[in-house]
Specification:
alpha+beta; Aminopeptidase
Amino acid sequence: MARTRFVVELDGEVAGTVSGGPADGPGTAAITAMWVDPRFRRLGIGDLLVKRALQWAQDNDYVDVVLWVTEVNAAAARLYKRNGFKRTGGVSKVRPDEDALELEMSVTLLR
């Protein structure tokens, strides 16, 4: 399965992007990158991007979607939680004093 990227534009400017593709496990997709331009934050663009990535995963017969978020990025963690992601318990060291936390959700919940 191919990787994908979705872009939101406002007035001809890129306001945000999300990328996804297959993860390591069977039937699992990953959100591999997400970004919203600070000028366009708090407008619902992050929610729109996450929902689009989840719809893509469902349309491509994935069962689960995983992602990693650094523990210091509280705004992103709230965004993902608001959209149904839950911690798996997976932790990865990003820097000596910073971890990334693995989150997951089942896209079957969208049906």
